[in-house]
Amino acid sequence: MKHLYQFSLKLILLCTVLLLIVGCSGPSAASPAKPRATATIDPSFQSQLSPVPTVPPYRCGAWASNYGPPAYGNVTIYARITKDNKGVKGLTATGTVNFDGWSEPLGDPQTSDEGGYVSFVIALGGRQPRLTPATVDITFTAGNQKVTCSAFFTPQ
What we know:
Blueprint: H1 2-24, E1 58-64, E2 74-83, E3 86-87, E4 92-99, E5 102-105, E6 110-111, E7 117-123, E8 134-142, E9 145-153
């Protein structure tokens, strides 16, 4: 017990001496801080900005009922057309499925309902390799304007 007491005192004394040596050392010879450069913005910069683009009158979105359908299963593609964020009724929509290396139209054109929605059912029948994404393009016709949106799925 006496040896442990002596060892503890020596350790405390050593730590105190080391602390005094480190604390008494002079200031380091570090170089003084250099002032940072200040950014200056030319007031004419703001007049050079391009205008904010206008929102197109018609917008559409498309999505799949199942993003990972069975290779021999069916997948439904939904799409919606909007004008001023409200669904547009009565517009014609056509679709094309883009398989690996070839494309195929999606049957008869569909007409959008009161909410602007249409849907197309695709029977896959193993025509797309498993784990290879396929895309579907849906095009709505509004007068002489065409609006296209896309969806995707990956057969499992």
